[in-house]
Amino acid sequence: MSPESEADLPADATADALPGTLPEALYTELVAFRRDLHMHPELGNQEFRTTAAIKERLEKAGLAPRVLSAGTGLVCDIGGDPGGGGPAVLALRADIDALPIPDTKSESPYRSTVPDRAHACGHDVHTTVVLGAGLVLADLHRQGLLPRPVRLIFQPAEEVLPGGAAEAIKSGALEGVGRIVAVHCDPRVDAGRIGLRQGPITSACDRLEVLLDGPGGHTARPHLTTDLVTAAARVVTDVPALVGRRVDTRAGLAVTWGRIESGHAPNVVPQHAELAGTVRCLDIHAWRTAPDIVVAAIDEVANLHKAKSEINYVRGVPPVVNEPVVTELLRDAMTARRGAASVEGTEQSLGGEDFSWYLEHVPGAMARLGVRTPGERTVRDLHQGDFDADESAIRVGVELFTAAALLHPTR
């Protein structure tokens, strides 16, 4: 445990025996709550049922949640006066939206009831963990055992670029917040454990759309046309290579295409082509220059093949960069609850996460929450229809967040 955290422990608590354990009855309720969310997934900015369910449960606990200005998502303060100059608020953040993919877990009693919608990224788990932590911390506050204020942030639209975090921030979600923490489900980590890393833990992620146009014609006379199929193919193959040579290779700037469309007949050179993909980057400084580099490379290749290009570069999210002190706060919290062996190192992912927008304003850290049943060999990756989580991870997440709130330094 860091000296800073140890000095700020509540007077009646030690690292070996923190208050705020999760009662079995509440754990059972939280599992049912998570399953209800899983059965009723809602896409970004449409999470009205989810928002109402969270709000109802927090109000039942005597709390006063505030729905965000967009109409979905909410924040809820526990203890203290965030604007009164008291101790800095620790924020616990969850994302509440689902993905537009079908749930393929045909044997699951709690599979999605909404066609082509699924909680395939674990946001239902994140939401339940923050809700559970909030309920435990509210009880501690009533007992006079919560030394510092906590804010619960239930954020909509994480899966919608550039992410709902920006709107939550505009709605005042970070007012009075000194530090912020979050978890993300990881099917590569066993339930009962978390993965931690100081520094960047995710990558930046932007969206790219390219339209190519030119005079078409007969495939017998391609020299009289702008051969858009060839031009599109060269953009697909050449641009990633060009981009990779224009930044330090350690920045991990990568263009990957997910869609290419052009033409309708085998003997007609088309007049229009469309490409779409993502731009990912491991380094935040290289990410800030990525639009200029990528757009210039596309224009160069398109011009070489006499194709007119229209580029829509949609800024997504920067990398999540874990601040060292807050990362160690999570390590201390997990160690206090489950021992040092429950924390493992983790690699930087190429996935994007809009939690990064909060870190542009306040220091914070994200942990990877293990959701794989120990000993299980079936790989259920994120963003796949058969994704599911070992629900014991809910207990682990609640323990992590409640301990972090108790160990959180005053300043």
Shape: elongated
Report the biggest beta sheet as strand number plus sense, adding barrel if it closes. 8 strands, mixed
Cα-atom Rg, whole angstroms?
24 Å
What structural category do the secondary elements indicate? alpha/beta
The count of strands amounts to 16
In percent, how helical is the residue content?
25-40%
So, the CATH homologous superfamily of the largest domain?
A: Zn peptidases
Estimated share of beta-strand residues: 15-25%
Name the CATH architecture of the largest domain. Answer: 3-Layer(aba) Sandwich
Kindly, what is the distance between the CA atoms of the first and last residues, rounded to a whole number of angstroms?
A: 17 Å
> Which regions are unreliable across 5 or more consecutive residues at pLDDT < 50?
1-16
Secondary-structure element order, as H and E? HHHEEEHEHEEEEEHEEEHEEHEHEH
Q: Averaged pLDDT, please? A: 92
- The CATH topology of the largest domain turns out to be Aminopeptidase
Lateral strand order in the biggest sheet: 1-2-4-3-5-16-6-15
Question: What does it look like?
Answer:
By secondary structure, the protein is α/β, with parallel strands linked by helices. The protein folds into two domains: 3-201 and 320-407, Zn peptidases (Aminopeptidase); 204-317, 2-Layer Sandwich (Alpha-Beta Plaits), CATH 3.30.70.360. 32% of the residues lie in helices and 23% in strands. The chain has an eight-stranded mixed beta sheet with strand order 1-2-4-3-5-16-6-15, covered by helices on one side. A four-stranded antiparallel beta sheet has the order 10-12-8-13, covered by helices on one side. Strand 1 (66-67) and strand 2 form a beta hairpin. It starts with a helix and ends with a helix. 48% of the residues are buried.
